[in-house]
Write a structure and sequence with these properties.
Blueprint: H1 14-23, H2 32-45, E1 49-53, H3 56-66, E2 74-78, H4 83-90, E3 95-99, E4 121-124, H5 136-146, E5 149-153, E6 161-162, E7 165-166, E8 173-177, E9 190-194, H6 200-207, H7 213-217, H8 237-248, H9 250-273, E10 286-287, E11 294-296, H10 300-312, H11 328-331, H12 341-347, E12 350-352, H13 361-376
Parallel strand pairs: 2-3, 2-4, 4-5, 5-8
Antiparallel strand pairs: 1-9, 6-7, 6-10, 8-9, 11-12
Helix pairs in contact: 1-8, 2-8, 3-4, 3-6, 9-13
Amino acid sequence: MQIPFNKPFIVGKELFYIEQAVKEGNLAGDGPFTKKCALWMENHFTANKALLVHSCTAALEISAILCDLQPGDEVIVPSYTFVSTVNAFVLRGARPVFCDIRPDTMNMDESKIETLITPRTKVIVPVHYAGVACNMDRIMEIAAKYNLLVVEDAAQGVCSYYKGRALGTIGHLGCYSFHETKNFISGEGGALIINDSRFIERAEIIREKGTDRSKFFRGQVDKYTWVDIGSSYLASELTAAFLYAQLEEADKITKKRHEIWRQYHQLLLPLEKTGILRLPIIPDDCAHNGHMFYILLESQTVRAALITHLRLCGIMAVFHYIPLHSSPMGKSFCTKDRRLPFTENLSERLLRLPCYYELTDSDIQKVASEIKSFFKGI
């Protein structure tokens, strides 16, 4: 592909910091760079506590344990999301209850949440699709009314904001991803943001394989031991070193992502005005991070044809999630045949365009030009 869908990048001192970590002889988790990453997130996002972990999946799994779910408890989640969002809670014995999405933002439809609540409901998991915030005011109101916990899946939302508040810092817990397809990358990597202080101590223990090792290193206990369930959720110091270099350049990276997003929007706006496709919608109270640029097409057939056309032109564009409620595993949790009309319809028509830090102006123009050329030919 002349223009791949995604391309990992180096923007600052990534390799220097990795070399520094090796020379200092600390490659396991919770070294100096791990602590720097956590402190950076706490300071920049006004987060109560940040814990670096090896993936957003790990952050979600820790969150699910902290929610103290029992077999048969229910968790309200969007169907239009990555499987880790749901897997984390299913592993604790919970049953996912799938919520439809809004047609404007592709986020969980907050107006449908209350109809899904039962005496077994324990958690709401909003997913901030494309780095655009869910309606967190309403979701937190519902959670307070029914005494529910809120775990934000902000995998795509690092450096995005809702009414001036960083995504991941609004619910009781928040989960970030630093996978190589995200804005800030470390290959794999993630973070758990703890906004409710009652969860901090236990989260540290779960993250450290169920031991109070963190207390030992702080000198709070004279030895550490097994005190709770947990697993090996720490990120390596090499991952943290690479990530910290990216976080140092967060403003530069975000500015570039916004430039890419604006160029796509400007170049493709004429096609939206003629009704050929629809561009992303950003509510006024949301400040997005330019994580992705997608278009909504007339039908699944048109999308498939456009994907083929772009690939023949050396451009890799992809569709996104297969709705989880329609998957073999998802169907096993549905007690009846539930239809999620917007999820089903929009997921078949959405196409993600190449979006990465090193994408050039000429690359963007070529993608837009080939999309326009495709529609001239049909």
